[in-house]
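Bench notes, afternoon.
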Amino acid sequence: MPVLIDYPEPQIAVVTIDNPAKRNAMSREMMAQLAGYWDELERSDCRAIVITGSGEKAFNAGADVSGDLSASEDMARMINRALLKTSAYPKPIIAAVNGVCAGGGVELMLSSDIRVAAPHARFGLPEVKWAIYPFGGATAKLVQQIGYVHAMKLLLTAEMIEAEEALRIGLINEIVPAAELLERALAIARTIAANSPVAVQAVKQHISAGVAAAALAREAEEQAHGDRVRASEDFTEGVSAFREKRAPKY
């Protein structure tokens, strides 16, 4: 199963993106599976969720660009749920970033509430380099979470940043030795799970509702921007260049 779910302790779930051969990049099928897990966990008595990637190299490298890149409204709704883009999700999520976190991986991380990262983790939104529109929530959430100038630098340069820089700009909470990363995330989950679940989930749902509302208000506009980019010659060239492992020529 490319997305795994485990319950190592009562009321704590660990979701693992398991596609290490592709740096845990997610196909549309994996995203649909992840969306289903969010639904399952929301209905459950789970009190805290840890999300991480398989192996030591990557948390999530975003979408699997070798697969389907269509973006119909139905597909967009499924991806939105997988990335919790417009969901007022009630369960606290801790991201254990164990390596590369790029593109949709950053957007998935942006749906988390607390983030710990290994020293070798790197972060970035390379979409514009490959003529892809970042429609998984980054254009709304990044500005809210780390401020305009830091968000725009990540979105427009398409550059990757190191864990220390991610910590400096407030993209993550802590840097933890790689061997201790999952245990640190679980320790945070235990602390949260010991608190009143009614109170915790009320706080989480109220705050995430505000974040989701900003993304939801611009969803139709974002769909139009994404459609315009996908219809362009740049998109054809960018995706071809990515798949052929060469620099694009715009």
